[in-house]
Amino acid sequence: xxxxxxxxxxxxxxxxxxxxxxxxxxxxxxxxxxxxxxxxxxxxxxxxxxxxxxxxxxxxxxxxxxxxxxxxxxxxxxxxxxxxxxxxxxxxxxxxxxxxxxxxxxxxxxxxxxx
Amino acid sequence: xxxxxxxxxxxxxxxxxxxxxxxxxxxxxxxxxxxxxxxxxxxxxxxxxxxxxxxxxxxxxxxxxxxxxxxxxxxxxxxxxxxxxxxxxxxxxxxxxxxxxxxxxxxxxxxxxxx
Lengths: 115, 115
What we know:
- Chain A contains no helices and twelve strands.
- Chain A is mainly beta.
- In chain A, the strands form three sheets. In chain A, strands 2, 5, 6, 10, 11 and 12 form a six-stranded mixed beta sheet that branches.
- Chain A is globular and about 45 Å long.
- Chain B has 115 residues and is mainly beta.
- Helices cover 0% and strands 52% of the residues of chain B.
- Chain B contains no helices and eleven strands.
- Chain B is globular, with a radius of gyration of 13 Å.
């Protein structure tokens, strides 16, 4: 079974603080892919990153960074020096080699950045 | 390149009616997936279409159906609407089918309200 858990329902930070969004996943597939999406108030899901199960290298893109650890089945997302524009709901998602384009989403973390 | 478009953006229906939602994928994308997003259940996979064939189906009743046309545009239909069908319906397109490597590109969604 595929499952994604985002235990943090809501997070509030003050602008310029760093914030980490947690994502824990479960899968029986040995080949799988992890994703993060951002959903601003407009509703459209915006793709942020994709990671495959064979690549545990951390990735940094500007103020965003991702930490993938297979040993703990986690794929955490950190925003450095948060800005008001980062306020959104963030979703972690999983797809497995056996499930093709079917994504399993976590319940999302609502991030509010206070100016 | 134009993104995924969904029409209509907002829809209000009453119980017992039926509704048809439309999705036009990114040009060249042949896979279209549909998701239902509600506050209680989060994002749930409805079905995926590729080359006019349904490839995968989520755990939804038969009242939810879909189809894909030769130009890859897709429609989903919900018959005998229930109050619980009120949700944001998101369409996602992907270049290929059955490949979990591909990120999915989401449209802005159709907000359906059932009264």
